[in-house]
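Researcher: Let's try something more involved. This one mixes different molecule types, so please make sure each is placed in the same coordinate frame as the others.
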Amino acid sequence: DAGITQSPRHKVTETGTPVTLRCHQTENHRYMYWYRQDPGHGLRLIHYSYGVKDTDKGEVSDGYSVSRSKTEDFLLTLESATSSQTSVYFCAISENFGTGVSKLFFGSGTQLSVL
Amino acid sequence: GQQLNQSPQSMFIQEGEDVSMNCTSSSIFNTWLWYKQEPGEGPVLLIALYKAGELTSNGRLTAQFGITRKDSFLNISASIPSDVGIYFCAGQKSGSARQLTFGSGTQLTVLP
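Model: All components are placed in one shared frame. Result:
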């Protein structure tokens, strides 16, 4: 299994509070991603990173920010959580980007509930 | 964004039966990927397809890259209880993760 750890695994928070989810990898892969998974929508890309301090927006980036200060860590922040952000969040990593197939390896997910 | 139509949404089959599921799109993709997700875990890559018409197997799983490049099929032969899970297709237009689109999944239940 790819060495990806997401924390926390579960979180319940209130509307309007800030939330940070952490993804830690031990594979030294350059590329990291945050997805959200909702029923009927499959997986949708929120933000991704192609190196330390290099990030870009995905399909559903509104209301989210990310940071990557070290190769191994990719943080996802909800500045002011809303109920529509209740979801399962997956971190993924990949070795290839741009030159081949993005074979993604996923973490186990974080279940976030915003009340 | 781009849409992948994955069907069926769910399947209930008897152990030992064969299973077929597919993904279609109005867009052309250069790569098709099939993932399986078990409860409480992230998706795991099963098969990657790189060329139109390509047929690739992984044990009892066989996937095909449609000749039009707008569809892909996954077949599971002689299903067993551990095949239970959600199967996702994903199409990639280029090497960019921004161009990787996931289907909404097929929930497979295998009855003993």
